[in-house]
Amino acid sequence: MKKIRILFFLSLCVLQTWQAKAQATFPVNDIANPQEDCYAFINATIVTNAQTTLQNAVLVIRKGKIEAVGSKATVPKDAVVVDCKGKYLYPSFIDMYSNYGTEAVQKIAGGGFRGASQMLSNTKGAYGWNQAIRSETDAAKIFSVNDVKAKELRAVGFGTVLTHQMDGISRGTGAVVTLATEKENMVMLKERAAASYSFNKGSSTQDYPTSLMGSIALLRQNFLDAQWYKTKPATEGINLSLQAFLDNQGLPQIFEGNDKWSDLRADKVGDEFNVQYIIKAGGNEYQRINEVKATNASFIVPLNFPQAMDVEDPADARFVSLADMKHWELAATNPAAFEKANINFALTTNGLKETNTFLSNLRKAIQQGLSQQKALKALTETPATLLGMYDKVGSLEAGKLANFLIVSAPVFSDKAVVYQNWIQGNKYILKEDGWNDIRGNYTLVINNEPNTLSIKGEASKPSAEIIGKDTTKVELIIKDKLVLMVIDYKKDSTRDARLNGIISDDTWSGTGQTIGGNLLSWTAIKTAPLVALVDSVKKKKTDSLAIVSGTITYPFNGYGFTETPKQQNILIKNATIWTSEKEGILLNTDVLIKSGKIAAIGKNLTDAAARIIDGTGKHLSAGIIDEHSHIAGTGGINECSQSVTSEVRIGDILDPEDVDIYRQLSGGVTSSHILHGSCNTIGGQTQLIKLRWGATAEQLKFANSAPFIKFALGENVKRSYGQSNNRFPDTRMGVEQVLTDAFTRARDYEKMGPGKRRDLELDALVEILNKKRFITCHSYVQSEITAMIRVADKFGFIVNTFTHILEGYKVADKMKVHGSNASTFSDWWSYKMEVVDAIPQNAYLMQQVGLNVAINSDDPEMARRLNQEAAKSVKYTSMNEEDALKMVTINPAIMLHVADRTGSIKIGKDADLVLWSDNPLSIYARAETTMVDGIVYYDIEKDKLLRQGITKERARLIQKMDGAKKGGEKMSPPSPSYKERNYCEEDHHDEKTFWGRINEHQISLDNQ
Asked: What is the pLDDT of residue 466?
C-alpha cells in the first residue's frame, strides 16, 4: 500500500508538471516546442548586489529565472555553457519613473483667458467633475510593448521599468514591466504597482485649474472628497474617479515634484493627509538638501544635467543668468548630495533628451562624488524594494528573474562595454565586438615560418603588428569568429599577403595568398595576454571641467548667502528716528536691538555685546510694508478659471528665490502682502510674508498673522471684452449676484450637520462670515464699492480693505461707516476706463475723512520706491511728512492686523527697520541697511562686494563653458533666463501659457 501511495504521488507530480508545461492561454501557430532553455555562465565576476561580488563564479538560468549562483554552483549537464572569463555580470537596472509603452496624450488647443470656458469635464462616463483627476487610469490596460523604446533602454542597462501614463494631476496606477520583446501579458510583472501624481493638469482642456495653486487646491479637495465618498449617502450616485483614488491609496504613492520647492510642496500635501510620497526629483535638490532630507521621503533622481551653453559671444552671454551657469557646473553633484545626506533614492532616465546619455551622465555623477556602490543600489535594489518587487528583480539570486548584464569591466568605469542584456532569460546583444579579448602576443606561423604577432589597442578596436627586425603593421578586421589580416611588408612587397581564417578561443587558423598568388596556410597561437604598461611617474592629466569651484548660496543666485545670516545684538547710534508712533521724530537717538526685538530707545545707550552702527546724519524708520504685492509667487498668481476660487492659497506657491525680494529689501521693504490676482470675483487666500532673503517658503510666512483673502470688482472680473467669454458674470450687476450667491451657499453649508462633504471653497467663506478671515478687495469705481459694502452688510461681515480704490475719495464716508481701510496708488490714473476719475489727492482726502490709508505698489518695481510714492502726497496736498511715511509703515500694519508686532519703532516690537542715508521721503534717500527680526538682510556695502563677486564668478563660468566647447562637448545655444512677473490685472498683458495660465515674463538682465 505504501508503494502504491508513493507511485500515485509521483505520477500526480508528473501529471501536474506536464499540465503546467502543456497549458497555454495563447494558441501557437506552429509545432509545439516544449524545450527548456538552460544556460550556465562560468568563470565570471558576478556582482549579485551592491554589497556582494563573487569571483570566478557561475550563474545558472532556466526558464527565464535564476536557478543557481555562486562560486561553487554546479553546471547542469543540459546547460549551454557560456565562458565569461574576464567579464562582469550585474543585475539589469530598474527605472521606476517611465512612460514606456504608454502613448503620450496631446492637449487639444483651445480656450484660454479670452476664449470660451470649459467649466466641467468632457470625459464620458461616471467619472469625477475634473478632467485632470484621472485616478481611474491603469497603465496595465493601455500598455503596449514598444521594441524601439525598449531597445534604447536595454542599451543602457535597463531590464525593468515602472510605467504610467504621465497625464494629469492624479494619474492613476503604473505597471511594472520588463523590456523583453514578448507579449504584453508575459512581460508584465505587476499590473497595479504604484499610484502617480503631479501638479500638472496635463492634457485636460478644462479651465480649472489654470495655476499651480489651483492644482494644489484641486488635489487637496480630491483627498477630502474621497474621504467623504467612503460614507457617502446612496443618493449621491457613483463616482469612479473617487473610488479609484481610494483604491489606489494602498499602493506606493509617487509624486512628480520636478523642482526642489515643488518637492516640498508635494510633501506638505502628503503630510496633510498622512501620505508619504516617493518624490520624483527635478535635479536641483542639492541646493536645498537639508530641507529635502527633512521630508523623510524617498526620491527618484534624474540625471538630466544641462549642457554647457555657447557663451563665447559676450552679447549672448549677458542674457544667461549666473544661477543657470552655476547649475550647469553643479548639477552633476545632485546624486552625491542625496547620498551624503543619507536620503534613500533611485535613479531614472526620465528627463533625458537622449536615452543613450544615461551612462555617461551617471559617470559624471560618480566623478562628482556619487559612490559606485550607491549608484548600483539606486538602479537595482532601491527601486525594486520601493515597488515591493525585490523578490523578483533587483539582484542576482536564485528564484529571481534572469535579468542581468554582461559587461567587459566594472559597469560604471569609463571603458566598460555592455555586451549583452539578458531579460527574462532572453539574450539581447548590445555589442559583440570585444566579447573575446584577443589582445596579446601570438606565435604566427605562415607556411612553417614563425613570426611574433602583437595585438594591442582597445578591446573593441584592436590593432596588430608583426614584430621582428622590421616591425610590420597589420590591418586587422574581425567579424564575429572570422578574421582578415592584410600584411604590408614595406621593404619587400612580394611578401605582402592576405590571411583569412577562423578564431577558436586562443587559436586562429586559416589560409591566405601572397600578392603574387602563392597559396598560404597559417596558424596563430596566443602565447601571452596583453600586459598594460603602468607609468608610475606620469600622472593622469586632470580634467579641468570636472573640478567644481562653485558654491551653494541661499538663495541660489549671485545675491545669496553662503551661510544663513544670524540674529545679533545691534546698537544704532545717533540717528534721526521716525517712530511712526505718538513720539514722532526723535533726533540724535539710539535704538538697541536684542533677540530680534527693539529693546531700548533713547540717548547714550550702551551694550558691550552689541554690534555698533553709526547713524549720525542718517534716518531710521520702521520697515516698509507693502499691502498689495504679487512678488515671490510662482505658477501663476491668478486662478482665472471660475468666478469663485476661495480654496486656492498663495501660501502654497511662494518662491523664496524671487530676486524681487532682495531688490525690495534694497528699497527698505520688510513685509509684503502677497495677493491673488483680480481675474475673478472671489480669488484666493493671500499670504503676508517677511522678506527673509535666503529662507524657505515656509520661513517667509509672517507667523500667526491674520488670514486674508482677495476679492475683485470691475472689468477684470466680468471679462465682457470678449464675445466668446461664457463665464458668469458679464456685468457689474452679475458680480454682486456672484457675491450674494457665494455667501448664501456658505451660510447654508455652515448650517449642515455632521457627515457633510467638506468644501474648501466654502470653508474660506464661512471664515469670513465668522470674522476669522478678512477681505482685501480690488476696486476702482464708486458704484461697485457701494455694492460690495451692501453685500457685506447683508451678510454681517466687513470688507477689511479696499485696495487700488482710486475712486475712494468719492465714497470715503460710506467706507468710514462700514469700517474699511483703504490702500491705494499715489498717482496712477487713466490707464483704463475704470480709472479716468483717479486723482493724486485721493489718499489725502480719504485720510481727512478718518480712514486708515496706505500706499501700495501692485508692482515689483514701484515697491522699491514706496517711500517716494508716500512722499507724493506731501507734494500734491498739505499732508505732513510723518503721516506720509505712516502710509507705508504703521498704517498697512494696522490694516493687516500686525501693528502690535511691526510697522513702527516701539520697544517690544520686531526689529524690522531701515537705516536711510537721508530723509526717507527724499528722492535722494537710499536704504543702507535693512533688517528683519534684527537680522541684516541687506547692506549697501555688502551689496557692492556681491556685485564684484558676481562679475568675477560669471567670468569664471563663461571661461569654463568656453573650455567645454573647445574640449568638444556638445553645446546648447545660449538660453535667456526668464523671470516670472506676476500681475494683478493679467488681462492687460500678452498671453503666455504655463499650464494654461496667463503670465508675462521678462528677460532677467541682471544676470543673477
From this structure: 86
Phi, psi dihedral angles at 466 (to 5 degrees): -95, 120
| pLDDT over threshold 90, residue 32 | no
Under 8 Å between Cβ of 267 and 297: yes
277 φ, ψ to 5°? -80, 150
> Would you state the cell numbers that stand for residue 593, as one nine-digit string?
536691538
Phi and psi at residue 864, in whole multiples of 5°? -75, -10
What average pLDDT does range 633-661 have in this prediction? 96
Render the burial of 131-151: b for 16+ CB within 10 Å, e for the rest: bbbbbbbbbbeebebbeebbe
User: What is the end-to-end Cα distance of the chain in Å, rounded?
Assistant: 90
19 pLDDT more than 50: no
The whole-chain average pLDDT of the chain stands at 90
DSSP state string for 969-988: ---B---PPEEEE--TTGGG
8 A C-beta contact, residue 257 and residue 280: yes
Pick from 243, 281, 299: nearest CA to 125 = 243
**Cα–Cα dist 789/841, whole Å:** 23
Task: Say whether the peptide bond before residue 729 is cis (omega within 30 degrees of 0).
Answer: yes
- Whole-angstrom Cα distance, residue 1008 to residue 1004? 7
Which domains are seen in the chain, by residue range?
Answer: 93-108+117-390 (3.20.20.140), 440-529 (2.40.128.120), 624-902 (3.20.20.140)
Dihedral over alpha carbons 888, 891, 895, 901 (to 10 degrees): 90
Q: For residue 554, what are the β-bridge partners?
A: 561
Tens of pLDDT, residues 808-862 = 999 999 999 999 999 999 998 888 888 999 999 999 999 999 999 999 999 999 9
755, burial (CB in 10 Å: exposed 0-12, middle 13-18, buried 19+): exposed
937 has pLDDT over 50: yes
Encode 580-595: b = buried (16+ Cβ within 10 Å), e = exposed: bbeeebbeebbbbbbe
Secondary structure of 215-235 in HEC code, one letter for each residue: HHHHHHHHHHHHHHHCCCCHH
Q: 997: closest CA among 630, 644, 635, 675? A: 635
Cβ-in-10-Å burial (0-12, 13-18, 19+) of 227 comes to: middle
Phi-psi map region of 948: left, alpha, beta (phi>0 left; psi -120 to 50 alpha)? alpha
Closest to 506 in 3D by CA, of 44, 85, 88: 85
What's the confidence (pLDDT) of residue 21? 46
DSSP 468: S
The pLDDT value given to residue 215: 98
Instruction: Examine residue 209 and say whether the peptide bond preceding it is cis (omega within 30 degrees of 0).
Output: yes
Cβ(851)–Cβ(844) below 8 Å: no
CA distance 236 to 169: 24
Residue-wise pLDDT for 379-425, tens only, equals 999 999 999 999 999 999 999 999 999 999 999 998 899 999 999 99
31-35, 938-942, 944-948: least confident range: 31-35
**Residue 703 contacts residue 664 (beta carbons within 8 Å):** no
Q: How confident is the model at residue 12 (pLDDT cuts 50, 70, 90)?
A: very low
CA gap 653, 665 in Å, rounded? 21
222: left (phi over 0), alpha (psi -120 to 50) or beta: alpha
Q: Which long-range contacts (CB under 8 A, 24 or more apart) does 24-28 make?
A: 25/185, 26/183, 26/185
- Rounded to two decimals, the pTM is 0.90
Four-point Cα dihedral 988, 989, 995, 996, nearest 10: 50
Structural contact between residues 171 and 244, judged by C-beta atoms closer than 8 angstroms: no
pLDDT bin (cut points 50, 70, 90) of residue 220 is very high
Q: Is the distance from CB of 128 to CB of 241 less than 8 angstroms?
A: yes
Number of Cβ within a 10 Å radius of residue 357: 18
